[in-house]
Every structure is written in C-alpha cells, then in structure tokens.
Amino acid sequence: MTKPRLYSGMQPSADSLQIGNYIGALMQWRDLQDSYDAFFSVVDLHALTQPDDPAERREKTRRTAAQYIAAGIEPSRSTLYVQSHVPAHSELAWILSTITGFGEAGRMTQFKDKSARYGADATNVGLFTYPVLMASDILLYQTDIVPVGEDQKQHIELTRDLAERFNSRYGTAFTVPMPVIQKGTARIYDLQNPTAKMSKSAESDAGVLWMLDEPTATAKKIMRAVTDSEGVVRFDRETKPGVSNLLVIYAALSGQQIASIENEYAGRGYGDFKKGLAEVVVSEFEPVRARALELLDDPAELDRVLAHNAGRAAEVADRTLADVYDKIGL
Ligand code: ADP
Ligand code: NA
C-alpha cells in the first residue's frame, strides 16, 4: 500500500531556526516521515517577499536545509528540497492565481496583518499572492495532509477551495488536502516577552533560543528569561506566562509531563529550574548543532543532496503540472 502524502515547509528567513520551529514543526516532521511519503521544502520563493541580500539569501537557504537534516529529517526517507529548484511551483502558482478571486485573496488575515505592519510602500504583490503560491506548493504533490499551525488554517482552506474549483471546472487534477492542525503541539513564546510567539524574524533576539547558538549563549538566555515574583514552578498561562512557557519547552524536549516537572522542582527556586531547563535544551541541541555545522562544512555535498531531492520532487510536480496544462488547454 502506498503511504499518504504529506507536505510542509519553512521559510529560510534567518541563519538559524529557533526552538519554536523545532518543537512546533521539526519534531513532528521527524516523527511523521515514516508513516507518510513526506515532502519537506525550504520555501525560498516565499522568502522573497522580504528584502534580503542575495548572498545572505543563498546562505540562509543552505543553513535551513542543513538544520532540517540535523534535526532528523533524512533526505533518503523524505524528499527534502529547495522550492525554487522546482520551477513548477511558480508555474502552477500563476495558473491558480487566475482562478483565485481578488476579494477571496484580500480576506486572508495574514496579508492584512503583514501589510498593516509594513505599510503600503513596503507591501509587495508577492505578499498578496503568497497563499496562492502556498496552494501551488501543496497541490503539486497530490498532498493528503498538511501539518500546520492554527495561523495557517485559512491558507489551507483557500488551497482546498482552489483544488475543488479547478477539479470541478476542468476535471480532477488535484487531491484535496486535509489540514492537520497541531492542537496538542506546543506554541513557544519569546523568553523576554512570554505572550508573543517566539519567531526567527523577531525584532530583538534576546528572548529567542536559536538552534545554532553556542551552549553558553543558550544557557544565558534561559537564566535571563522573564518569570514572576511568586517563586513557584507551576503552570498557569494566565498569571505565569513566563514560567509556563519554560515548562512547555522542558516537557516537549524531555518527554516528561508538566506535572512531574512541577513536582521535581517543588520547593526549589527558579534558578534551579532554569539550570535544569538549560541542561535539557543544550543536550537536545548540542548534537543537532554539531551535525548542522558539519553539513555546512561541506556545502558541495549538501548541494548535491538537495539537487538529487529536487529531482525527485520535480518528477512528481511535473506530472501534476503537465496534467493541469493539458486540462486547461495550454
Ligand atoms: P518564524 O516565526 O520563526 O519565522 P515560521 O512562521 O516560518 O516561523 O514557521 C515555521 C514553522 O515553525 C511553522 O510550522 C510554525 O508553526 C512553527 N513555529 C514557528 N514559531 C513557532 C513557535 N513559537 N511555537 C511553535 N511553533 C512555531
Ligand atoms: Na516567519
């Protein structure tokens, strides 16, 4: 029996991924890669919606791919590739844009948020059509499931609508994908501002735990994490967002229940708890960091792996695209 197909990706928008990307995405991807025929993409075309230096861009793309592999995404078991290496993504995006309503695209809340933040001058058309490119990413691979965070739910709905619209107008070319909204998945918050999502594109990185940080830098950030004055290691998102966030990280990486961590640190201060957490994070990230740096030491080999995987991706994507061209009369 063939395995159901899974698609996911991340933007190469920083030199390092952060612990939220690891806990919220990479750990799941790693677990899912055996039960699914998984495609994991470094979505560099999406990252073009943000200005960057070309050399930096190239480097961030390589680094992101290296971190996928270092975190346990195996390019022999999963198709791990760079989006722009498969031109079908851009080609299908154009076709899908012609069946996307202007008003429909305008209702995407992520675009509304981003364009409000950037202002009219910094908002580009690519940001507006971003969800159409995302639909193309997913639909090219006849994807059955897309593991995503809550914030991407609307984009997956659009993807489904576009697939159904195309299929009913021109004949079935696409699998209609199901979102798997990762409810149980922990959302990780900024250590300095524990009500804001930790992000690799945060303005300040004082509260961001980078996968590629030196262990001492990671420990320092954890020791400085914002807590509260109660002095009790107890989970309560409402009144203790800082401590709760640290507990969630601890639980996700150690596999322990939050209650058992609370017990372990009962009667001890935040200093002890933070030291314990720093050990948990550093021991998880140390091998990941070492492996990523080793991969980045041999960029030619990494590029070879990525090129090979892009070839595998293109085989599937090109088949879908050829069918679409045929059905639409091109
Ligand atoms: P970032 O905000 O770091 O740029 P992205 O928006 O590129 O992250 O998301 C990449 C993946 O990482 C997505 O699957 C997203 O759900 C996950 N992710 C990002 N930040 C977090 C977080 N703080 N907590 C949990 N998951 C996260
Ligand atoms: Na981002």
TrEMBL record:
- SUPFAM superfamilies on file: Nucleotidylyl transferase (SSF52374)
**Which Pfam families does this one have?**
tRNA-synt_1b
Q: Which organism is it from?
A: Microbacterium rhizomatis
Q: Name one GO biological process term.
A: tryptophanyl-tRNA aminoacylation
Q: Provide the assembly information.
A: Homodimer.
Q: Where is the signal peptide?
A: none
* Positions with a binding annotation for ATP: Q11, P12, S13, G20, N21, G149, E150, D151, I188, K197, M198, S199, K200, S201
In its UniProt entry, what is this protein called? Tryptophan--tRNA ligase
Chain span(s) of sequence motif 'KMSKS' region: 197-201
| Gene name of the encoded protein | trpS
Where's it found, cell-wise?
A: Cytoplasm
The record's GO molecular-function terms, alphabetically, read: ATP binding; tryptophan-tRNA ligase activity
Gene3D superfamilies noted in UniProt: HUPs (3.40.50.620), Tyrosyl-Transfer RNA Synthetase (1.10.240.10)
Positions contributing to L-tryptophan binding: D137
